[in-house]
Design a protein that fits this description.
heterodimer; A: alpha/beta; nine-stranded mixed β-sheet; two-stranded antiparallel sheet; 13 strands; 27% helix; globular; B: alpha/beta; five-stranded parallel β-sheet; 16 strands; 28% strand
Chain lengths: 249, 308
């Protein structure tokens, strides 16, 4: 089985982002960048399947500027076999990303695509589902468990009221939720080894895909501030405030 | 404007989030249509027809849609939706699962999780876990939009829409429903409760959540948790409040033993009144709390329960 995982370069999850003063976006100039945490879970899941002998090859793809190579290298250090960088300076939106992934899925003959359920920058939560529509593949979104069988994969999904389990015919798409696994850290020897692994670079047009963004960002504002209230001294005072001042109980 | 709202339901009852999506839709048009896709879902169609502002309810009732898998219902949404200018649904796990698949079938993008509508093509949505608010404009001929339900009131009942059955593509062999495990609870649902009490890593273990339950029983509250508490294995993930869990905006939110990581604040900072109980007076949660109590939760919770 051949697995494709996608990794997105995003601002590190622990960095507090600030909106640019011209409201065109958020300030990323000197921010620490990292693999999107959900993509990291996708990489880990793919590597585990390979370690269990259920997958033959894990390919890590990233779509973005040259700098995204860094995130592909991280995926390679974690255990992916080779990388693909689809280089573009355009800020590809989910439909464009799904089109690029479709081209790679077809070119490489992929059996299983594992993606993060959302990226922590744009918070769209769309690519896996869109790729499903474009390829006609089934989708196991928000997965907390994924077990490949004969020609299929059984996926347990996090849904609002609890969990739902579905059986998907391969080739299929899985998008990761938090509890699917706990990603490992790359060891130094593996980081060294990863430097020898290959990364193919191509452009969206090499894949016959044009990125056309039809959703424009007009402005980005900081969220309304919520100011700190008061400290109460006791449970009694708290109850009194909630009853007489806030009137919520 | 021709606006379609996709109903979320379990074949018997209409989920509350759909009513919020209708309210959002009614900012785009005076009357909207609703699509109900399911199996044996007549009761849902009737409930939908009774919502004020709904003109027409289209029902695709087909045994193949029993579990509303994305592979089976996204094609129906796309087929019906192609005649509309806007297709809206609640940004619940169902809407998040199905709507992007329908959008891509229509060859259009999706605007996820909107919190306000500026005009027919311009929407407001949080990005970076709510640390920035983006205003976006869609140039797609059909706008596929999911709605953050806490940002829109629920539409009222009082309508009498017509109900029309439609034929739909049925069977597919891509995905098969195997089973589901839904947490049965007497408590109100987390996303629609008017009071939510949540525990964090400070609860120390899952058993201690019983302390929260006792207070919740007194208040008629739903129980939530921080991602730290979920990651530590104290409670299941469907209780998680935050960027990667559920977004809540109750009248009263009580955060107990929660430090207040950005990712948690993203899920609850629109609550009307926030109470924080934490023994660390430097905890960031106090910066957003209306009322902060610096105390050991193992003393404060039993006291709170006995005095409520």
């Amino acid at each position: 089985m051949k697995i494709l995982v996608a990794v997105k370069r995003v601002v590190d999850a622990y960095v507090k982002v600030r909106v640019k003063s011209d409201h065109s976006g958020v300030e990323l100039a000197n921010a620490k960048m990292a693999i999107n945490p959900f993509c990291e879970i996708a990489v880990e899941e793919a590597i585990r399947l390979k370690e269990q002998g259920k997958a033959d090859e894990v390919i890590a793809v990233s779509i973005g500027t040259k700098a995204s190579q860094e995130q592909i290298r991280t995926a390679l250090a974690l255990g992916a076999d080779r990388g693909i960088l689809v280089e573009t300076d355009e800020d590809a939106q989910p439909l464009g990303v799904a089109r690029i992934l479709k081209a790679i899925v077809e070119k490489e003959g992929i059996d299983l695509v594992i993606l993060g359920k959302q990226s922590i920058d744009t918070d769209n939560n769309q690519v896996g589902q869109m790729l499903g529509a474009l390829t006609g593949m089934p989708q196991g979104t928000f997965a907390c468990k994924a077990e490949p069988g004969e020609g299929s994969i059984t996926v347990t999904r996090e849904v609002d009221g609890g969990e739902q389990t579905v059986e998907l015919k391969l080739p299929a798409i899985v998008t990761t939720d938090l509890r699917l696994n706990e990603p490992r850290y790359a060891s130094l020897p593996n980081i060294m080894k990863a430097k020898k692994k290959t990364i193919d670079t191509m452009s969206p047009s090499d894949l016959g895909v044009s990125i056309e963004n039809r959703i424009k960002t007009l402005s980005v504002e900081p969220p309304p501030e919520r100011s700190a209230g008061i400290k109460v001294e006791s449970v009694d005072e708290l109850i009194a405030k909630l009853k007489t001042e806030a009137k919520v109980i | 404007m021709k606006v379609l709202v996709v109903a979320e339901h379990d074949n018997e009852t209409l989920r509350g989030g759909t009513l919020s999506a209708v309210t959002a839709a009614l900012q785009l048009a005076d009357a909207v249509d609703m699509l109900v896709v399911g199996a044996g879902c007549q009761a849902v169609a009737e409930a939908a027809a009774a919502i004020t502002g709904v003109a027409r309810v289209l029902v695709a009732d087909n045994p193949a849609h029993e579990h509303q898998l994305a592979e089976s219902i996204a094609p129906v949404i796309a087929e019906v939706g192609k005649d509309y200018t806007h297709i809206l649904a609640a940004a619940s796990t169902t809407g998040k699962n199905v709507m992007p698949r329908a959008a891509a079938l229509l060859d259009v993008g999706q605007v996820s999780d909107i919190i306000a509508i500026k005009s027919a093509d311009t929407f407001v949505r949080p990005i970076y876990a709510g640390n920035a608010i983006a205003t976006v404009q869609s140039e797609d001929p059909i706008k596929v939009v999911t709605v953050r339900t806490t940002a829109f009131d629920e539409a009222e009942s009082g309508g009498s829409a017509s109900i029309e059955s439609i034929d739909s593509v049925g069977a597919q062999d891509l995905a098969k429903f195997v089973g589901e495990e839904l947490s049965a609870s007497e408590r109100p649902e987390l996303t629609s409760a008017s009071i939510v009490i949540s525990g964090g890593r400070g609860m120390q273990n899952g058993e201690n959540f019983a302390l929260l339950e006792k207070v919740a029983d007194k208040l008629g509250a739903a129980i939530g948790a921080s991602r730290a508490a979920v990651d530590a294995g104290f409670v299941p993930n469907d209780m998680q409040v935050g960027q990667t869990g559920k977004i809540v905006a109750p009248e009263l939110y009580i955060a107990v033993g929660i430090s207040g990581a950005i990712q948690h604040l993203a899920g609850m900072k629109d609550s009307k009144v926030i109470v924080a109980i934490n023994k660390d007076e430097e905890a960031p949660i106090f910066q957003v709390a209306d009322y902060g109590l610096v105390a050991d939760l193992f003393q404060a919770l039993p006291e709170l329960e006995s005095k409520l």
